[in-house]
Design brief:
The chain has six helices and 13 strands. The chain is α+β, with helices and mostly antiparallel strands. It has a single domain, classed as q2cbj1_9rhob like domain (Jelly Rolls, Sandwich), CATH 2.60.120. The protein is 22% helix and 25% strand.
Length: 259
């Protein structure tokens, strides 16, 4: 499953960096065999060759602009460029990866009790058309939870250089908490006052690299201008005591891991 051993000292340093700066990069974690299997399964799911009840699909905007995204369309066919595919915990291959021993060590260092996941999702930027994503935080009322999660672990399924729309972060921006109670996209005036654009730090990744992200960290990504797809698999882990607070529909039940 792994390309190399991740020593305790390296993991401890990554966790310290995550706590201080809101992110940390662990290179060369997933083996090529693991990546090949996950990429193939991602393609099978995106094209409908493998299906699971209740999966969530969001097509990308043909224009490549985040503001043009359509919501609520779901599955629209095998030839659709899907920006987001959720509920990957239903698939045995992705399920095995999100519970792998390296992730268990990371999660246990942050969340010592019972753990559930808010989401397990592929974010995809297709070659030449993958859209941009503005500064945002993955928390707040927008997420409909009784408490904000803290930890996301992102795995690069493909190479993610700057030209492919690699992850960009605003280091340390998690420390003040939410930029707005709603969460999600950071208001423009807050971006300007924090001088976030000039502080932006690109985190280019190779396939198999892993990135730890605090949910309150401001992060963004640009469009994919290369001839290759850029896919990342991200899992948000949270304390099992966290509850869904939505009222318009039945509250969600969250998938348990690391009991």
């Amino acid at each position: 499953m792994f390309r190399r051993e991740v020593p305790d000292a390296e993991l401890a340093a990554a966790l310290a960096h995550y706590r201080a700066e809101g992110w940390a990069h662990l290179p060369s974690v997933a083996s090529e065999e693991t990546l090949a299997a996950l990429r193939a399964r991602a393609e099978d799911i995106a094209t409908g060759r493998v299906t699971y009840p209740g999966m969530f699909f969001q097509p990308d905007a043909p224009s490549g602009r985040y503001t043009d995204l359509a919501f609520g369309e779901g599955w629209t066919g095998a030839d659709t460029n899907y920006r987001k595919i959720e509920k990957l915990e239903l698939d045995p291959l992705f399920h095995a990866w999100l519970q792998n021993p390296v992730f268990a060590r990371i999660v246990r260092a942050v969340l010592p009790g019972d753990v559930t996941i808010y989401r397990a999702v592929i974010f995809s930027k297709a070659a030449r058309v993958g859209s941009d994503l503005p500064w945002h935080q993955d928390a707040g009322r927008f997420w409909g939870l009784s408490r904000d999660p803290e930890l996301q672990i992102w795995t690069a399924l493909d190479d993610a250089p700057a030209a492919a729309g690699c992850l960009e972060v605003c280091p340390g921006s998690h420390r003040p908490g939410l930029a707005s109670p709603l969460g999600g996209v950071v208001p423009k005036e807050k971006v300007s006052s924090a001088d976030a654009d000039s502080r932006a730090l690109p985190i280019p990744a190779r396939a198999g690299d892993v990135v730890l992200i605090h949910n309150h960290l401001w992060h963004r990504s640009g469009p994919n201008t290369t001839d290759r797809p850029r896919r990342g698999f991200t899992v948000c882990y949270m304390d099992a005591a966290t509850r869904c607070t939505r009222t318009k529909r039945a509250p969600r039940a969250f998938f348990p891991v690391f009991r």
